[in-house]
Amino acid sequence: MTYTTPTWNEPVELKLQCGLTRSFKEACDALYFLEEEWPVRHGAAYQRARRWCGMALETDKAADIARKTFIEAARKAGLLDESALPETGNDRPMKPHA
Predict the structure, then answer these.
(1) Which of 24, 27, 23, 91 is nearest to 56 (CA)?
(2) Quick check: 14 and 45 in contact, CB under 8 A?
């Protein structure tokens, strides 16, 4: 089986518990972090991110979904650097209508 390492168009920035910031540009690095360094390894968002980042290694068609699920898992874990996300686009959480 051949693995690909598709690069994401925009990196995902995390604020680690030690205070450092770490940038992720591809599913391979995100998957390693999820499996080896993630602070809380349970929950639906975490499991989805692991599954999609793993699938992105097999097909570049899963790369965009892998990035989105990694962002959501990071948001749920309190690690996402929201200020590093683009002002527009679908990386930001949905805001309720007034």
Answers:
(1) 27
(2) no
